[in-house]
């Protein structure tokens, strides 16, 4: 294992052990919740998105769930990414989801840009393992669904 792969593995384990955004926030204001389940391995997530009053920005993402370290780390990385941005424009959130999906479906051909995806770039290697792509995508699908509903 290369030094970079080892670092990415540590980052994934760190997020799964000390997750960002875990614990559903209050259901006040413009909020939508999405429950998603990966029937292949049993990962589950309930993700809540809080939007600005006018619905143009994502203010907060919180979640709760259970599953493998990849699914839990991915949810944590997504929450941290939104947290760092502070009021991410909804259009930018949609672009993030599409970019993440494209990279994870690329079978290792497209790497996630660390400048754009932050710690979630560590999940680039997951794209080489088809069975794990759904684990990594679970929170992002829930985010997409909740944002569309809000």
Describe the protein.
With 150 residues, the chain is α+β, with helices and mostly antiparallel strands. It is 47% helix and 19% strand. Strands 1-2-3-4 form a four-stranded antiparallel β-sheet. β1 and β2 form a beta hairpin. α1 packs across α2. The model has no long low-confidence stretch (mean pLDDT 90).
Strand order of the largest sheet: 1-2-3-4
What is the radius of gyration computed over CA atoms, rounded to a whole number of angstroms?
14 Å
Q: pLDDT below 50 for ≥5 consecutive residues: which ranges?
A: none
Strand coverage percent = 15-25%
Mean pLDDT: 90
* Structural class by sheet pairing and helices: alpha+beta
What is the 3D shape?
Answer: globular
Helical run tally: 5
Largest β sheet strand count, sense and barrel closure: 4 strands, antiparallel
Helix percentage: 40-55%
Order of helices and strands: HEEEHEHHH
Q: How far apart are the termini?
A: 42 Å
> How many strands in all?
4
Would you kindly provide a brief summary of this structure?
By secondary structure, the protein is of the alpha+beta class. It has helices spanning 3-17, 69-85, 90-104, 114-117, 130-149, and strands at 30-37, 44-51, 57-66, 88-89.
What's the arrangement of secondary structure elements?
Elements (H helix, E strand, L loop, with lengths): L2 H15 L12 E8 L6 E8 L5 E10 L2 H17 L2 E2 H15 L9 H4 L12 H20 L1
Antiparallel strand pairs: 1-2, 2-3, 3-4
Give structural attributes.
150 residues, alpha+beta, 4-stranded antiparallel beta sheet, 5 helices
């Amino acid at each position: 294992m290369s030094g970079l792969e080892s670092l990415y593995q540590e980052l994934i384990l760190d997020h799964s052990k000390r997750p960002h955004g875990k614990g559903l926030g209050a259901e006040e204001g413009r909020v939508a919740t999405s429950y998603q389940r990966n029937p292949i391995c049993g990962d589950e997530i309930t993700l809540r998105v809080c939007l600005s009053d006018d619905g143009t920005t994502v203010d907060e993402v919180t979640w709760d769930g259970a599953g493998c370290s990849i699914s839990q780390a991915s949810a944590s990385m997504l929450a941290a990414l939104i947290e760092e941005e502070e009021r991410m424009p909804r259009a930018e959130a949609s672009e993030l989801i599409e970019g993440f999906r494209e990279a994870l479906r690329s079978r290792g051909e497209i790497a996630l840009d660390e400048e754009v995806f932050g710690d979630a770039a560590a999940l680039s290697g997951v794209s080489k393992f088809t069975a794990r792509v759904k684990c990594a995508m679970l929170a992002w699908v829930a985010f997409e669904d909740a944002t569309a509903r809000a």
